[in-house]
Amino acid sequence: MTSTIIISFCILLLIAYLFDLSSSKTKIPSVILLLLLGWLLHQMTEFLGIHLPDFTVVLPILGSIGLILIVLEGSLELDLDKSKISLIRKSFFGALVTMFVITFALSFLFQYLGGFPFRSCLANAIPFSVISSAIAIPSVRGISTANKEFVIYESSLSDILGVVFFNFIVLNTDYGFKTFGNFGIQLVIIVVISFVATIGLTILLRKIEHHIKFIPIILLIILIYTVLEIYKLPSLIFILTFGLFIGNLYKFKRFKWIKKLHPEELKIEDQKFKEITVEMAFLVRALFFILFGYLLETTEILNTNTLLLAAGIVGIIFVFRIIQLKISRLPLKPLLFVAPRGLITILLFLSVVPAQQLHLVNKSLIVQIIILTALIMMVGLMAFPVSEKSNEENAEPALDVNKVE
């Protein structure tokens, strides 16, 4: 039995690796193939009469670890310099404003359809307003540098802002001056903690001489994130801060206190750390979506009762994405299509407390929206491919997104 589990586990992950390898060529998002793989595994175990334990409790754990690693992976790839200020500003305000607009639009829709309390509608609408970095970042490897950087910033910031906004709505019953004051204090606290923890982890990264050094750092990152989550602080800000700092430390070597960290030496360690983070993110992401696919029922995927609402929500998402890109003066092709919902949507959906759950928002609706947005992204990336030559030509203009039309 043990051998069978090990063999099955290895085969599933090797298949997931093949999906990841082929996705840049086929433009088929690996999440669709992973969900399908998990669903087929479920059908096979039922057909053969194999009874496996309930994995439902494992899903949120894998999802949280996956979110940490994916945001860390994305932030490690980003370059910080003055030429990126416009890009960061557009990414931030694009993610923030679009999230608010879509959340309130869907909240009014849910309230109109079912007469639910508006606060409950907000909690259920937020998961649909967040772009999934777990799907977006791996899917844009083949597009131009300028567009890829925008997607990385936008999706990572969307995850962070979505979690912060969700916790703010769920944890507060009123939204007066005191509530916003406490929220402001929380942001100050997380910025201070992020700075101190980042410096501490950077020193550890340089000081540890043992042959095992990166896994302890990653475990400490997960530990700090989890402790911050217990106190309801926006802990993804810490992950983003750490990744950006480590990945760009050598650019700030003109500062005396940065020189003490030996940034040139850390640049080599940063590359190794990035490699192990990418591989761990792949592993956890693959397990998460295979498991989620395994837990799906066929009736949930093909539920015609939710299909019309799912199509309507997807329509709202892409209408506001067109408006966002037009206002930001960014290209519709292919950025319009890169607005997938995925891991973060599932995590936030699972975090809605029973008292605030709506019968309209169920697993069928979540799955259908994830699949529809992933299919739209797939079709869009297939229809507007970027050649290697085009990618190289766009590498330098990426420094000024104002010129991207």
How are the secondary structure elements laid out?
Blueprint: H1 2-26, H2 30-48, H3 58-76, H4 85-114, H5 118-125, H6 133-139, H7 145-171, H8 177-207, H9 214-230, H10 236-248, H11 256-259, H12 263-294, H13 298-301, H14 304-327, H15 343-351, H16 363-383, H17 388-395
Helix pairs in contact: 1-2, 1-12, 2-12, 3-7, 3-10, 3-12, 3-15, 4-5, 4-7, 4-14, 8-9, 8-10, 14-16
In percent terms, what proportion of residues is strand? under 5%
| Total DSSP E strands | 0
Q: End-to-end span in angstroms? A: 58 Å
Helicity level = over 70%
Structural class, from secondary structure content? mainly alpha
Order of helices and strands: HHHHHHHHHHHHHHHHH
Q: Report on the biggest sheet.
A: none
Q: Taking Cα atoms only, what radius of gyration do you get, to the nearest Å?
A: 21 Å
Instruction: Specify the CATH architecture.
Output: Up-down Bundle
Query: What is the highest CATH level, the class?
Result: Mainly Alpha
Number of helices: 17
The count of domains is 1
List the defining traits of the structure above.
single chain; 405 residues; mainly alpha
What does this structure look like?
By secondary structure, this protein is mainly alpha-helical. The protein has a single domain (62-403), classed as Na+/H+ antiporter like fold (Up-down Bundle), CATH 1.20.1530. 74% of the residues lie in helices and 0% in strands. The protein has 17 helices and no strands. The longest helix has 32 residues, at 263-294. The radius of gyration is 21 Å and the shape is globular. The model is unreliable at 387-405 (pLDDT under 50).
